[in-house]
Inverse folding.
């Protein structure tokens, strides 16, 4: 009798664990679409680009390559259209929803409604743009 109850408990727990695993795996699939707003701020702190762009199962790099002229050096974005940062004294800092991005254009996961801001920034400048 105790063995049957133990088997039933183990079976129920196993089903719950498998269900949770399937749930989390399905939620992490790249099946994502929506719109993002791309804003680019140049060296004079002027907004030179402000566009809403539709995406479907794309990372930020793919969206940028499809809509703008970009250049990177060793994985760092150094040019978007006419805004060019040499990478030594200046760089292009990325903000997602007004927070400094901790990932680059290859790794950033997008969500519908995100505002991605690229700001021409002096190396060592930790101020937050308005």
């Amino acid at each position: 009798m105790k063995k049957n109850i133990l088997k039933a408990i183990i079976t129920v727990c196993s089903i719950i664990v498998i269900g949770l695993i399937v749930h989390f795996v399905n939620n992490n699939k790249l099946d994502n679409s929506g719109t993002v707003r791309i804003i680019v701020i140049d060296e004079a702190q002027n907004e030179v680009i402000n566009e809403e762009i539709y995406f479907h199962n794309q990372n930020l790099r793919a969206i940028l390559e499809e809509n703008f002229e970009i250049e990177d050096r060793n994985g760092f974005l150094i040019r978007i259209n006419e805004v060019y940062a040499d990478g030594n004294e200046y760089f292009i800092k990325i903000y997602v929803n007004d927070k400094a991005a901790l990932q680059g254009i290859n790794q950033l996961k997008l969500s519908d409604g995100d505002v991605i801001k690229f700001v021409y920034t002096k190396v060592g400048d930790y101020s937050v743009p308005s």
Notes: The chain has a mean pLDDT of 87. The CA atoms of residues 94 and 118 lie 5 Å apart.
